[in-house]
Structures are given as structure tokens and as C-alpha cells.
Amino acid sequence: MTIDRTDFEIIRELRRNARISNKDLAEKVGLAASSCLVRLRRLHREGVIRGYHAEVDPAPLGIQLQALTSVRLNRHARPQVESFLEHILKRREVIRVYHLSGRDDFLVQICVASAQHLREFVLEAFTERAEVDHVETSLIYESWDSWDLPEFSGEGSQD
């Protein structure tokens, strides 16, 4: 699928506000509402837009700490990778997992209720696993998201 400038602007506006009405979205990108809806449906059908989410404040949910844990497996082979992923993706404390190249194999973002919860989670979820060789955990003090997208292909690409 080819993404043109208008498709990109639709995606960019939805990243900024996923609750925008089709009428307002069409106005922002310079299309008729019917044309915008056709493009939006195509972006969904082709899998470019995979879904929408709600941004949530973690504190009212009892989440007092967030951490990033770097995990190094004793062997970076398919059975160990798959075993670790199967285990870690089932844990409710895990909100994001990155499979990496380099020294560490995974970076896991964790949400917990307390320092004790974090300690118990790291011991149980990581250090007790046979395929895990090394774990290093860093607390997240604060985080920021960018809702803009870089454009690297097509019209207006950045060098």
C-alpha cells in the first residue's frame, strides 16, 4: 500500500486525537467527509491503522512505580526467546516488551504497586527463569510521549 501526503496527514491527526469526528478530520486534511471516510476505511483494512487506545493515569489504578528491566538470556536461540516471551507476556505487570539486538535481549516495561511488589516481580518473573542470564532494573521517574510521527517515505520525506 502506498501512503500519500493526505493519508499521512489523516494518520498524524488521529495520533493527536483519535476521537476526532470524521467531519473535523476531513476539514483538517482538506477532504470531503465522504472521501476522508473512504481513506480511513482503507487505512484500517490495509492494517496501517491497527487500533485506538485510551491514555490512562496509572496512579488511580494503584500503579505507584514503573520500571524498565533489561533482560539477557543465557542463549539467544529461538526456544529460549519463545519460552521467555510466552512467560513474560502473561504477566499483568508487563505493559510493553521490546526484543532487542545488542548486549541485552529484551527490555520490559513494568507497572507495580510498590517497591516490594517490584522486587517480588523481578525475582519471580526474571531471576527464577532458567533461560535468563542477567537482569538489570531501572526505575522510571517520569515519561513523555510524542504523538507526532516522522515521515521517511513518499512526498515530503525527511533526509
Radius of gyration: 20 Å
Name the average pLDDT: 92
The tally of domains stands at 2
The succession of helices and strands, N to C, reads: HHHEHEEHE
CATH superfamily of the largest domain: Lrp/AsnC effector binding domain/regulation of amino acid metabolism (RAM) domain
Helical proportion?
25-40%
- The class by helix and strand makeup works out as alpha+beta
Q: End-to-end span in angstroms?
A: 22 Å
Number of strands: 4
Largest β-sheet summary? 4 strands, antiparallel
Shape: elongated
Number of DSSP helical runs: 5
Q: What is the CATH fold-level name of the largest domain?
A: Alpha-Beta Plaits
CATH arch. level architecture of the largest domain: 2-Layer Sandwich
Q: Low-confidence stretches at least 5 residues in length (pLDDT < 50)?
A: 155-159
CATH class of the largest domain: Alpha Beta
**Strand order across the largest sheet:** 2-3-1-4
Strand content: 15-25%
Notes on the protein architecture:
Helices cover 36% and strands 19% of the residues. With 159 residues, the chain is α+β, with helices and mostly antiparallel strands. The protein folds into two domains: 5-45, Arc Repressor Mutant, subunit A (Orthogonal Bundle); 59-140, Alpha-Beta Plaits, CATH 3.30.70.920. Helix 1 crosses helix 2.
What descriptive keywords fit this protein?
159 residues, alpha+beta, Arc Repressor Mutant, subunit A, Alpha-Beta Plaits, 2 domains, four-stranded antiparallel sheet, 19% strand, elongated, disordered C terminus
